[in-house]
Amino acid sequence: MGVPDGASPETEASDESAQDAPPPDDQENEPPPADQQVDAEIMTAEAREWLGGIFGFGTPSEHESGGGGAGGEFMFANIEDLDAVITKWHTQRGEVQEDQDRIVAAYREIAEPAGDEMSRGQANAARNSLVSMWEHNSQMLQYTDSYIEKLNLARGDMVTMDQDAETAMKTTYEV
Question: What is the CATH number of the domain that holds 97?
């Protein structure tokens, strides 16, 4: 049997026995905190976009986010956690919008340094590049808007469920 990088035969044996051990009860089926799930989703989407640009995957596929909860959904312990994630996505959207504004400003600043064909060609190439950046950025804005909308819908559902549970508890245990 081979030894993994950085491991000795002694540590390899103990690593294998550790893999067979069940996880501690407090960690079983527990997703990471919502902010870590969101960070992981953002990093994954950015890596996909970057790799697609390098290897020419063509148009990006529609990405469906999912988290560590049942059915691949994020799990929020309370409204405050969900509100924090919504705030983070609003901040992310603001940053994407700032990028969009910088792209537009850069496009407007392009001027041909001379009237010859090469100067016009270089200016047009720069404009085309910025148009591609703007289109990609617009897709990112649409994605963040859609995700914020989904989070707000989830928040509404969570508030309704909390209110219904509170009403049920008061009705059931009314003194």
Answer: 1.20.120
| 65-120: pLDDT as tens digits | 554 445 546 677 788 999 999 999 999 999 999 999 999 999 999 999 899 999 99
Q: What pTM did the predictor assign? A: 0.55
Residue 135 lies in a domain: yes
Structural domain containing residue 54: 31-165
The C-alpha torsion from 162 through 167 and 172 to 173, rounded to 10°, is 90
